[in-house]
Write a structure and sequence with these properties.
Blueprint (H helix, E strand, L loop, with lengths): L8 H4 L22 H10 L14 E2 L11 H7 L10 H14 L3 E5 L2 H12 L5 E4 L4 H9 L3 E4 L20 H11 L7 E4 L12 H14 L3 E4 L3 H11 L8 H10 L3 E5 L10 E5 L2 H14 L10 H14 L2 H20 L12 E5 H4 L9 H13 L1 E2 L1 E3 L1 H4 L15 E5 L7 H16 L7 E5 L10 E4 L5
Parallel strand pairs: 1-10, 3-4, 5-6, 6-7
Antiparallel strand pairs: 2-8, 7-8, 9-12, 11-12, 13-14
Helix pairs in contact: 2-15, 3-12, 4-12, 5-6, 5-11, 9-10, 13-17, 15-17
The chain binds pyridoxal-5'-phosphate.
Length: 474
């Protein structure tokens, strides 16, 4: 019998295939509008994918935030909502889930991650203090600045190089941190702002060795460490797979050990935790907790709901338990790696190694002829939508915003377009369609010109900025 040319992915890779650890119980139809309709929709959206209507999008990889498919257990939990204003039983379930899986003593719920960032920044930063961290995140840094802090990036240099194959590109450069402490004094540093994984670096993880060393240094200097735990479960997967000594440990155990080196964490539960809305902030220090519990009432809601309905807290509590299951995390990150491997195989420039939640296309590699102030990554997001109705987002100069001191654009080393994969939503066939669309845009790269910004909001401009194409003759 002749050997069949058609092979499964497992056969291509010389191993047995594995599949998602779920089956589909309910479907949401999607369809692609015509090329003319996409061109019109893009123009109306000011070439900003954030301003597209979702009905005009075919495969939506704008974000993995709040876009997960909930499980049947989570939907059942929704029906168990205790909508009491105070002391809802769902709050206690949520509190117990955070304590069990993250290990912190005290927790306040918030409506989403930025609500928690706001509360932590207002309580833990004194105006004039510095906040070192392993690369900025948009909303995190803004809240730190609004509280009078100055963020200082002390991530390792490899994080800024899309081609570096360092397995833990989210690691903190301890020498850079020591340099900052020497320059400004530990008393002028509010806390260390640690993220696992690092979204803006391409979903890159932090190693256990690095967080242990960071803990030692921060202990010497009397500095607390607060963790952005938004994608900590995915970070734990990379530790399990890539760091010596962890292959036999469960994701749940790795998450818990990592968190034990930190003093608290904030969470956008819309990511790892498989819910469409929600967040929390958890700390070990009782005085800080007291301050947070008082402040949450002002901005979010009573300390036993913090902006969430009882049913949302129930779905979240169940989501926390599901999120740390090894088979779930393997399939979630495995899907991202699958798409990444296809693109790498076709020599399409992406951030390497592939991170946990998204593929980051290197827009400079696509469009070396487009200067950064003509927004190569924004251009790439627009072109991909035009080609195939696939929606991603800019993570480059537009997201970096302006320097508050000089008013100039910040020019980040990384000019990326992100395709974030929602959890438990799309299949391998969708990933194949996306890969082919990216290839078509890459093949047409030389004929593509940049954009001009015609409307610029003062803060977080990437959400609502508007652009128009620069014509070839300009
Ligand atoms: C790493 C990280 N931190 C914080 C946030 C803010 O969370 P939210 O969107 O829930 O306000 C996000 C959201 O994208 C994120 O990716």
């Amino acid at each position: 019998m002749s050997e069949s040319p058609i092979k499964t992915i497992g056969q291509q890779l010389g191993r047995r295939s594995w599949a998602e650890p779920w089956k589909i119980k309910m479907v949401e139809p999607i369809h692609m509008i015509s090329q003319e309709e996409r061109a019109k929709a893009l123009q109306e959206a000011g070439y900003n994918t954030f301003l597209l209507r979702s009905a005009d999008v075919y495969i939506d990889l704008l974000t993995d935030s709040g876009t997960s498919a909930m499980s049947d257990r989570q939907w059942a939990g929704i029906m168990m909502g205790d909508e009491a204003y105070a002391g809802s039983r769902n709050f206690y379930h949520l509190e117990a889930a955070v304590q069990t899986h993250y290990g912190y003593r005290y927790m306040v719920p918030t409506h989403q991650g930025r609500g928690a960032e706001h509360l932590l920044s207002q309580t833990a930063i004194k105006p004039g203090q510095y906040v070192p961290g392993n690369m900025y995140f948009t909303t995190t840094r803004l809240h730190q600045e609004l509280a009078g802090g100055t963020f200082v990036d002390v991530i390792i240099d490899e994080a800024h190089d899309p081609r570096s194959l360092h397995p833990f590109k989210g690691d903190v450069d301890l020498d850079k941190l020591r340099g900052l402490i020497q320059r400004v004094g530990a008393e002028n540093i509010a806390y260390f702002s640690l993220a696992g994984t690092v979204n803006m670096a391409g979903g890159q993880p932090v190693s256990m060795a690095n967080v242990r060393a960071l803990r030692e240094l921060c202990d010497e200097q009397g500095l607390p460490i607060y963790l952005d735990a938004t994608r900590m479960v995915e970070n734990a997967y990379f530790i399990q797979q890539q760091e010596a000594g962890f292959v036999d440990q469960s994701i749940a155990a790795i998450v818990k050990e990592f968190c034990s080196y930190t003093d608290g964490a904030w969470m956008s539960a819309k990511k790892d935790h498989l819910v469409n809305i929600g967040g929390w902030l958890a700390v070990n220090d009782h005085d800080l907790f007291d301050a947070l519990r008082n402040l949450v009432v002002v901005y979010e809601g009573l300390h036993t709901y913090g902006g969430m309905a009882g049913r949302d807290m129930e779905a979240l509590a169940i989501g926390i338990e599901e999120a740390v299951q090894d088979d779930h995390v393997r399939s979630r990150v495995g899907q991202v790696l699958y798409l990444g491997d296809l693109l790498l195989d076709w020599d399409i420039p992406i951030v390497q190694p592939v991170g946990g939640h998204a593929i980051f296309l290197d827009a400079r590699g696509f469009y070396p002829h487009i200067p950064q102030d003509q927004f190569p990554a924004q251009t790439l997001a627009a072109q991909l939508y035009l080609d195939s109705g696939v929606r991603g987002m800019e993570r480059g100069i537009v997201s970096a915003g302006r320097d508050p001191q000089t008013g100039d654009h910040r020019y980040p080393a990384l000019e990326l377009m992100r395709l974030a994969i929602p959890r438990r939503v799309y299949t391998q066939a969708h990933m194949d369609v996306v890969a082919e669309a990216i290839k078509a845009v890459y093949d047409a790269r030389q004929q593509t010109g940049g954009l001009r910004m015609v409307y610029e909001p003062k803060v977080l401009r990437f959400f609502q900025a508007r652009f128009e194409p620069i014509s070839a003759r300009e």
